[in-house]
Amino acid sequence: MWVTEVLPSSGERMDAASPEGRRWLAHRYAPIETDWVRLNMITSLTGSAVGPDGTSNTLTNRADRAILGVIRASADAIIVGAETVRAEGYLLPRRSRLAVITSSGDLAGHRLDPDPDGPDDQVLLVMPPGTEAPPPSHGVTVVRVAATDGRMTATGILSALTERGLRHIVCEGGPMLAAQFAADDLIDEYCVTAAPHLVPTAGPFLPLRRPIDTRPAGVLVDDDGFSYLRLRRR
C-alpha cells in the first residue's frame, strides 16, 4: 500500500507495508518530547468512528494499520475505554501496556490474553475506588483513580499512568474518552485517519464542546484515498 507525503510537500512515496516503509513512517511519527500524549483515531467522512459492522474494522485499511503499528510501537501505554475493548475485540499491543478505563470492571467479551511469561502489568485496569475488581490474574494490574460520582477525570487517569513511569501515552478512544482528554487540554498531537467512506453515524468521532487550536504537522495520503493527519496543539 503506497502512501505519499503531502505536508511537508515532499511528494515522497513509500510502500507502507515494506520494512523500509515502516522505518519511513516511524521517522515521521516519532514523538518529539519525552512526555507526549497522542490521540489516534479513525473517522469516516460523516464523522463516524465505526463502520457498518459497529467497529473500526470496516473503516480501516493496510496503510492505516501500518501507521497504527508505528504509533503503538513508540508508546509506553495505550489508553482505551472498556466499551471500545468489548466492541472491537482488542488484542494486546506487542510492546506497550494497555490501560483499560472502566467504571465497572467488566471486561466480558474481550480477547486480552496476557503473556504468561510477561510482566504483571501488561494490562492496567484503571478503575475508581470502591469498584469491585475482577479476580486476580497474571498480567493484569488494577490502578485506582479518584472519581467524583463514579467518574474518573482524564487528568487523573494520565497522572496515574505517568506516576508509573509511562510517559508517552496514546489514547485510542472511544469518542467520549477521547473528548475528555481533549477537554482537559492533555493531547499534544492528534493523529486522525480520514477514511473515504460515507456511513451513518450516531455522533462525531470526537465530540468537542469548544474549538481546539492546532496546526498541521504532517499529512499523508494513500492510493485508496485515505488521509493521515497529524495536528499539534499550538
Mean pLDDT, rounded to whole units?
93
Global Rg: 17 Å
Helix share of residues? 10-25%
Q: H/E element string?
A: EEHEHEHEEEEEHEHEEE
How many separate helices?
5
Strand order of the largest sheet: 2-1-12-13-11-3-10-4-5-6-7
End-to-end separation: 32 Å
Q: Into which percentage range does the β-strand content fall?
A: 25-35%
Structural class from helices and strands? alpha/beta
Shape by Cα distribution: globular
Biggest β-sheet description: 11 strands, mixed
Low-confidence stretches: none
Number of strands: 13
Structure explained in plain terms:
The chain is an alpha/beta fold and 234 residues long. It has helices at residues 19-28, 62-73, 82-88, 154-162, 175-183, and strands at 2-7, 13-15, 36-44, 77-81, 97-101, 123-127, 140-144, 147-148, 151-152, 168-171, 189-195, 214-222, 227-233. Helices cover 20% and strands 29% of the residues. The chain is globular, with a radius of gyration of 17 Å. The model has no long low-confidence stretch (mean pLDDT 93).
